[in-house]
Write a structure and sequence with these properties.
Length: 317
């Protein structure tokens, strides 16, 4: 079969022939029909991810068919029994195990679920990793509720667009930050009230009311300003730190306002099932940026590296 693999660390992924997966007890072989790109895939190709192994098939998101059954894959493997934190064995599909950028995949039956019936193939492929990450950080970790004022930073990426949609579905009052006014307008079309362009100097001084929940993936120097935008008892959830370490945090504000800073990574098996139920109940569909054929994945990688996308980039098999 054909697949997209890490042929050499620090080089673009290679479209090549690989062996078909072998049948084994407790596993099913899925004929994959679509997958989706994540920043994780880009970082792996650049050698900016731990534990990279050459020859591994990339890809965490995927949907496909088993004997006519349309299925979706949970990409979070071996979470364990503790809902509060993942086990030491936790893995994300697509490294170290072979992922979804292939014609077929063998996966343990415990990670196979029915595809949501209100979504098409491309939409379903865009859901797993980003949807799971968004659900856990917003709902499981930050306990967002109807009426909360929510700020989502970096509107445009796959996780952030799900956080916006999930928060709107909960009945929250949602605001965003972004690097472009166009992306802010797109977020408003999803139900956000308004937004702030963080490329404008001291944008945070234009915020006229504080927030109960803030969801961030950037970190860096700007995180200190998010603290100042918190209501008493606010929760800040973060699932990434693309801009690096936090600087100049004021502990007095944190303890006096009883602010919680909550780290979050992917989600448990229960989170994944609850996320599927949530999107089905509220008929939420992923926002798709662009689609490419799997053998044209290099174009998808270029699109993601440009930073211009809004929503998920999908690969058709």
């Amino acid at each position: 079969m054909k697949a997209l693999i890490i042929d050499k660390v620090g080089h673009p992924a290679k479209w090549t022939d690989v062996d078909m997966p072998v049948e084994k007890v407790g596993y099913s072989i899925i004929r994959l029909t679509a997958s989706a790109l994540n920043h994780r895939d880009v970082w792996i190709t650049k050698g900016m991810y731990p534990g990279i192994k050459e020859g591994v098939i990339l890809g965490s998101d995927g949907v496909g068919e088993i004997d006519g059954r349309s299925v979706i894959i949970n990409p979070g493997l071996y979470w364990g029994d503790n809902e509060r934190v993942q086990s030491d064995k936790f893995e994300v599909l697509g490294l170290p195990q072979n992922g979804t950028f292939a014609e077929y995949i063998s996966i343990s039956d415990e990670y196979i679920y029915d595809q949501p019936t209100h979504m098409g193939m491309e939409e379903s492929a865009a859901l797993p990793l980003a949807g799971l990450t968004a659900y856990r950080v917003l709902i499981s970790r930050c306990d967002a509720r109807s009426g909360d004022r929510v700020l989502v930073t970096g509107a445009g990426g796959g996780v952030s667009q799900f956080v916006i949609q999930f928060a709107v579905a909960l009945g929250c009052e949602v605001y965003v930050t972004s690097s472009s006014d166009e992306k802010i307008d797109r977020a408003v079309s999803l139900g956000a009230k308004s937004g702030y362009n963080y490329r404008e100097d001291e944008w945070y001084k234009n915020v006229d009311a504080k927030f109960d929940v803030i969801i961030d993936s950037a970190g860096g120097d700007g995180f200190q300003h998010l603290i100042k935008l918190c209501n008493p008892g606010a929760r800040i959830g973060f699932y990434g730190a693309t801009l690096g370490k936090y600087q100049n945090l004021n502990p007095q504000i944190l303890f006096w306002r009883q602010i919680s800073i909550l780290g979050s990574t992917m989600g448990s098996d229960r989170d994944f099932q609850d996320m599927l139920t949530f999107v089905s109940t509220h008929k939420i569909k992923p926002i798709l940026d662009r689609t490419y054929r799997l053998e044209e994945a290099h174009l998808a990688f270029q699109r993601m590296e440009s930073g211009d996308q809004f929503g998920k980039i999908v690969l058709i098999h």
